[in-house]
Specification:
Distance between the termini: 39 Å
CATH topology of the largest domain: Rossmann fold
Bound molecules: adenosine-5'-triphosphate, magnesium ion
Helix content: 40-55%
Number of domains: 3
Amino acid sequence: MGTRLNISSDLDLDLEKLIGQCIAVLGIRGSGKSNTAGVIFEELLNQQYPMSIVDIEGEYFGLKEKYEVLVVGTGDGVEIEITPDCAAEIAEVSMQQNVPVVLDLSGFLSDERTELLKEYLGALWDLAGKLRRPYIIGIEEAHEFIPQGVKTELKELIARIALRGRKRGLGAIVVSQRSAKVDKDVLSQAGILLLHRVVHEVDMRVYSELLPWRKSEVKEIIGSLETGHCIFVNGDVVQPIYVRERATFHAGFTPTLDAVTPPTLKQVSASIIEAIERAREGKGRRTRTQELEEQLARLEEKLGEKDARISELEDVARTLGYIKVEVPAAAQTSVALVEADEPAAASVAPHLMGVTRRSHREDALAARQRVAAHTGWGILDVAEEEAPDGLPPAVVRHVDRLVNRIERQSPLHRRMLAFLVAHAPDAYTAEQIGAWTNCARSLIEDEPPADLLETGLVERERRTDGIRYRSRLKNFVTSEFGVYQPDIGEQGLHEVARRLRDRLGTA
Ligand SMILES: Nc1ncnc2c1ncn2[C@@H]1O[C@H](COP(=O)(O)OP(=O)(O)OP(=O)(O)O)[C@@H](O)[C@H]1O
Ligand SMILES: [Mg+2]
């Protein structure tokens, strides 16, 4: 038997269940989310489970009433002042030396907050890859950091932790009062949900996707939940529970007329404070050369990304016929740029004829010059022909790249994908997939196809009979190959989907 956590007297939940989990705590203002998250933190702290809590309202320092938790940040009430510069070092001390940290961000301006979190969480992610021990990150107001439909570096990092942290022992507790504004992938893949009261239609809709109930039931049950009551969802378990009250001081409590006695707070041991101070000062004493080296490394990384983007754009430009190459009989060749609608564009694919691309001319020229400068050659040998089935070469290469990427997935996930693609558009449970692909159901449940879900090739949905997966190949093709539109047309997309189906549908 595992270590039972006392979150609610209605619930049997073992500590082991939480390792590497993504837990989503949702509900309207005042429904009890922070209390629920606080109770989970208390239970984990009772087991010396290491953690960092991203606290943007200064709500969690009360944990110090009972536990040795270090509050870092800026402004009143923090024990150690930090800046983005030393955030990574502090994160490392927290993980290496099991120091629970409350990252109080209430005193930072938005940009600095983002910078600090990127450094802090990035360091946790990297170190977790090496140490692979249990660690959990709590994030309040998660909609601010992982907003639905918006792409940011920080969001990408947090989503990665939430969706793919399990193998590193990294778990996350994301708390939000704006269910509809939190990234849907993170919510739909959270292993544990604690759904408190919501009232707005948009939030009800999100809950309907997360709960295996009819919409009318969701509305009735969720709408009548009282403070501290919520629906606990973990796999097939869907259960109403009442979460106990926090044992430690909850700074986010709703004020009453009763006088509040400020709590007596536990101090973190001097050795830990020293370790953190050392980490912080060590960073502060960086030499100018070190700083420049780091800056150089960052710039080189950016340059690498830009180079990759340039070759991607060049691929697209060639496909669309912006660059035409003439190879004269003589050894010396030359490159000519033509408009796709000019008569000289005889070698341009017929379906591209008649499309005016004057606005891209400079782009293509610049791209060509960059390549010339890079390679030292003045010529691009790109007299590419359409493939016999009508797909431009860059599209064919794009398909190849995707197939190569899928081939790097584990055999289990390749077989799952092959099965789902071959049996689209139906959705299947882990048990059904296991039976068809000869894989253990538990294996599928333990190793959900995170990459396939992330790319959008596969979709996961929660139903009354458990979690189901289905292929989303068609939608995936529409969005991934949308860049080639309108040139390859519906027919082209159809052909891409057919090719992918043929190649991915067998494993
Ligand atoms: N399980 C509970 N039992 C009793 N009181 C509770 C419980 N959960 C929360 N409360 C009380 O309800 C009030 C609101 O709780 P809490 O701060 O946790 O809500 P919240 O959902 O986090 O709100 P917000 O969105 O404003 O942050 C607080 O005064 C808190 O003490
Ligand atoms: Mg709260």
